[in-house]
Predict the structure.
Amino acid sequence: MNFLSAMAGINDGEFCKKFTKQGVDVITLGGFNLDLDTFKAGLENMGQDRKEFFTCPHHISEDIDEFIDTITDYNPSWKGKISVNLRASEAASYGVLYKNKQIDIFEINAHCRQKPMLEAGTGQALLTNTTLLEEMLEEVTTNSRKEVSVKIRANVENVDTLKIVELINSYNVDYLHVDAMNPGIDEADYDIINRISSNTDIHIIGNNSVTTREDYLKMIESGADSVSVARVALNGDINHIFQD
Ligand SMILES: Cc1cc2nc3c(=O)[nH]c(=O)nc-3n(C[C@H](O)[C@H](O)[C@H](O)COP(=O)(O)O)c2cc1C
C-alpha cells in the first residue's frame, strides 16, 4: 500500500485530497495534539516556526471529521483509508477520537523529536519511556476499535530499535511505520528496514527520503510491505513514485 505520511500543520483535508488521485491508499492526517500537555507543546513549536494544527483538544474530533469530509467530497470514489497521527501525553487521551467513525487507523506518534514534544513526554520520548508506550498500546489496541499503527524513528541515540519492535510486536498492532532516518545522510537506512522485517510479521511501512520510483522499489526490496512519503508531497505531485 502507498501511504502519505504525517506533516503537522500541513496534512489537512484540503492539502491531502489531491493525493486520492495519485495512487495513495492511506492518507495520514495530522499530527494532532490530543491533550493539554501536547497542545501546549504544539504552541511552543509554533513559536519556533514549526507548523502545527492549532486545534484545541475540545474541537479536534469535529475538525478531523471536517478534514475527512473535504477528502471524500472531492473524490467520493476513493476507496482508501484515513489514518490520524496522534501525539498524547497519557494513554487516556486517545479516547477523545473513539467516536470518530470515519477514522480507519490510529497512529501512535513515537517519532516527533522537537524539544517541547519531548518535554511533554510524547513522540520520540516514548521510545525511552516504554512503560508509557505500553500503556498507550494497551489502551488503543483494546478500546479504539480502529486499526493501530505505531510510528517510530530508527537510529535514535540510546534506543535499541529492535527491542522497541519486539515490544510493539507483543501487542495487536496492524502497522509499524518506520522513519528509517540515517543521521547525517539524505538516504534511508535500508539495512534497518531489512533487520526489522526479519524480526516481525507486522506490516512495515518504510519511510524516509523516498523521492523516486527507484527509492520506492528499494524500500520494498529491503523488506517494507508499504512505503510512505512526506516532504516530496509538498510540491503536490507524487504520481511518479506510486504509479508504475
Ligand atoms: C513539516 C513536517 C511536519 C511533520 N510532522 C510530523 C508529525 O506530526 N508526525 C509524524 O509522525 N511525522 C511528522 N513528520 C515526519 C514525516 O512524516 C516523515 O516521517 C519524514 O519527513 C521523513 O519522510 P520524508 O523523507 O518522505 O519526508 C513531519 C515532517 C515534516 C517535513
Summary: The two ends are 13 Å apart (CA to CA). The beta strands are 2-4, 26-33, 81-87, 105-110, 147-153, 175-179, 203-207, 226-229. The mean pLDDT is 97.
